[in-house]
Amino acid sequence: MTQEQTQKNLAVLIDADNAQASIVPGLFVEIAKYGTASVKRIYGDWTNPNLKTWKDILIEYAIQPIQQFGYTKGKNATDSAMIIDAMDLLYTEKLGGFCIVSSDSDFTRLASRIREEGLIVIGFGESKTPQSFVSSCDKFVYTEILRKDTTSPATTKIGTRKLKGDTKLVQILRNAVNNSTDESGWAYLGTVGQYISKTAPDFDPRTYGYTKLVDLMKATQLFSIDERTTGDSPAKLIYVMNKRNKLTSST
């Protein structure tokens, strides 16, 4: 994240019917990577006893509850209220983006409309979230990653054999590296990460148990890793190469 990106004012809109209170601590830590949560609202029918678990967390994180009665059975009035508020905020507030917290595909068009105005959209939802909503966001984070439960599969490191057998993962990583390489065949890791963000908004190394992209790539054993220094700077620049390409160039 650049300094400019982390200074964005963000509107955080939470669908209480499709989110759990347990994700909130991790949610705001994650949002801080992208900007400042200047608007924090959560929508639901607060007369419903199923939402009582939210009370303490709303006070702690200063999230404004928006009451929305379910006027008609089978119709989700909460979604409509969120969408109307989002459009009002889009045109009346000086925002850099929106964080939409829901696993509901009803927000697909909303996310697309916000992006059409040049603002970023970060989606948060469970792994069951329909692909249409996931793909309509600039970045999508699965909430299983955000929960405190350390026994969750999302926090367990997946081994090399299983990673290599994950066709989708291997394709994402290889495509990103191959499309980011320079004339020498090496790709700067930062460029690789940017390419992945553009093509797979829901990709996250933490899904596989790794906090950093480079650690995940090392674990696959499919890529050569080169850490370089420039001048007197102690910082290291990380470059990666598809081992297939390395074998081809050496023959």
Widest sheet, order of strands: 3-2-1-4-5-6
Give the CATH architecture of the largest domain.
3-Layer(aba) Sandwich
Please identify which CATH superfamily of the largest domain we are dealing with: 5'-nuclease
Gyration radius (Cα, Å) is 20 Å
Question: Low-confidence runs (pLDDT<50, min 5 residues)?
Answer: 149-153
Provide the number of structural domains: 2
Q: Could you say what the CATH topology of the largest domain is called? A: Rossmann fold
Q: What is the CATH level 1 assignment of the largest domain? A: Alpha Beta
The helix-and-strand class reads alpha/beta
Regarding quaternary structure, what we see is single chain
Number of helical runs? 11
Helix content: 25-40%
Report the sheet with the most strands, covering strand number, pairing sense and barrel closure.
6 strands, parallel
What pattern of helices and strands is seen along the backbone? HEHEHEHEHEHEHHEHHEEH
Number-wise, the strands total: 9
Q: Give the CA-CA distance, first to last residue.
A: 39 Å
Describe the structure.
- This protein has eleven helices and nine strands.
- By secondary structure, it is an alpha/beta fold.
- It folds into two domains: 3-145, Rossmann fold (3-Layer(aba) Sandwich), CATH 3.40.50.1010; 157-250, Nucleotidyltransferase, domain 5, CATH 3.30.420.
- Strand 8 (223-229) and strand 9 form a beta hairpin.
- Helix 8 (167-178) packs across helix 9.
- The two termini are 39 Å apart.
